[in-house]
Design a protein that fits this description.
binds ligand F0G, 14 helices, 4-stranded parallel sheet, Rossmann fold
């Protein structure tokens, strides 16, 4: 695991630990980074190597994560569990860009990963680490996407997967995936934060390998979203990268990756990172806005169930990265999320509700004059549209009014008789 010198280091107190023992948190309770001796690497050579690997048809390095393996988990090929994840498209945002009021808006569609969310990038590293540590079971708490991803990767390499989800509170598409891939699915009374607390206790007690983003190797894999965006833009750094914030692993990964590229001299400009939370699950936003210490939100609530999280584990890493990038935290309402989703979907691109915080946040920041309409902006769409069909159909049938959401851009299905005249009447 340590061809180039690497170690775990606490974000809070800088205490260091060896990489070859399983550890998720520092003794002080702080989250851990994987650190490596970047002086041992030549940034320009790395860039050339990564360019050479672009478009490979097969093999480990055809993955959009392992393409950058020098900055991932250092594992031998036979331990790597990969589904050629990543390699997702970067779309001009089209109508979603007009909606946001931005001329140079791109959407990085992480919903095009093998299990339909960005989680696959972290999971390929996480399950490979599980293989390195000779684990036979893995576990996670989840709002749905992590569990879908973990169950799939575990199935691929013969690991038993144990899933903790808040009962009745995850989108159906995600529950379906967990069951289909064979995860042992424990629906617990309580919310995601309760599930997160329980899974950590279970993993420590029962020697099951924990695959939430508190696992530092998960974060390593997720750095590749940022690397791939830059490579797709021919290494021209955008002004902003915008993404939703829930448990706060993804933006932590994004900033860590950018810090490494900057230190290696691969980039000289730093993209500003904007993290967008739902206003009903907004502990990071509150902390940022009021400049107050971190405080969990007790009963988080949002239609974007993926980010219905009140006590995110990675808040400290997240804040560090946002400050380093001179970025910002913003919040958006339920209506803003679903209207932005309708416009992202209508642009022909489509994504699940949480993802569309990126578009809603872009619009809000553009309207506030924080993002200039000419700036180059990349929004990350974290999950596939089909993950949460209930939210889509509810919006388009205008049946979300109990949640205070109107179907502003609803495209209602119309019931007609099976007759040509009726079709003509509708089509005009
Ligand atoms: N978008 C989607 C679609 C997600 O599934 C998640 C997190 C996020 C955004 C937020 O990312 O947690 O790194 O800040 N989903 C986790 C899960 C919590 O269990 O699937 P984050």
């Amino acid at each position: 695991m340590k061809n180039i010198n690497s170690w775990l280091e606490c974000v809070h107190c800088s205490k260091k630990y060896e990489l070859d023992k399983i550890r998720y948190l520092c003794d002080c309770g702080g989250v851990l980074d994987v650190k490596r001796d970047l002086n041992a690497l030549d940034g320009q050579e790395l860039k050339k190597l990564w360019e050479k690997r672009w478009g490979l048809k097969k093999g480990i390095e055809s993955s959009g994560v392992w393409r950058y393996r020098e900055l991932m988990l250092d594992a031998p090929d036979d331990k790597i569990v990969t589904r050629q994840e990543g390699n997702t498209r970067l779309y001009p945002a089209g109508k979603a860009g007009e909606y946001a009021g931005l001329k140079n808006f791109y959407l990085k569609h992480e919903g095009e990963n093998p299990t339909g969310s960005f989680k696959d990038r972290g999971m390929t590293c996480g399950t490979s680490a599980a293989m390195l540590f000779n684990a036979n079971s893995v576990a996670c708490a989840s709002t749905g996407n992590t569990s879908a991803s973990m169950a799939s990767y575990a199935a691929c390499c013969g690991l038993r997967s144990v899933i903790f989800i808040p009962s009745g509170k995850i989108a159906y598409g995600k529950l379906a995936q967990a069951l289909a891939y064979g995860g042992i699915t424990l629906q617990i009374e309580g919310n995601f934060d309760d599930a997160m607390r329980l899974v950590q206790e279970v993993c420590n007690e029962m020697k099951i390998y924990l695959l939430n983003s508190v696992n530092p190797f998960r974060i390593e894999g997720q750095k590749a979203i940022g690397f791939e965006i830059l490579q797709q833009l021919d290494w021209e750094v955008p002004d902003w990268i915008i993404l939703p914030g829930g448990n706060l692993g993804n933006n932590s990964a994004l900033s860590k990756g950018m810090m490494e590229l900057h230190e290696l001299g691969i980039i000289s400009k730093i993209p500003k990172i904007a993290v967008i939370q739902a206003d009903g699950a907004n502990p990071l936003y509150t902390m940022w806005k009021n400049k107050t210490p971190f405080e969990a939100v007790k009963d988080p609530d949002t239609i974007a169930t993926a980010i219905k999280i009140g006590n995110p584990v990675s808040w400290e890493k997240s804040i560090r990265g946002i400050k380093w990038s001179k970025g910002i935290v913003e919040q958006v309402s339920e209506q803003e999320i679903m209207d932005a989703k309708a416009m992202t979907d209508r642009a022909g691109i489509g994504a699940e509700p949480a993802s569309c915080c990126s578009v809603a946040g872009a619009k809000k920041l553009a309207e506030a004059g924080i993002i200039h309409p000419d700036e180059k902006v990349v929004g990350i769409l974290t999950g596939n549209l089909l993950k949460d069909p209930d939210a889509v159909v509810g919006y388009h049938q205008d049946k979300l009014t109990d949640k205070g959401i109107r179907g502003t851009f609803a495209n209602k299905p119309r019931l007609i008789k099976a007759r040509l005249e009726d079709v003509k009447a509708v089509l005009g």
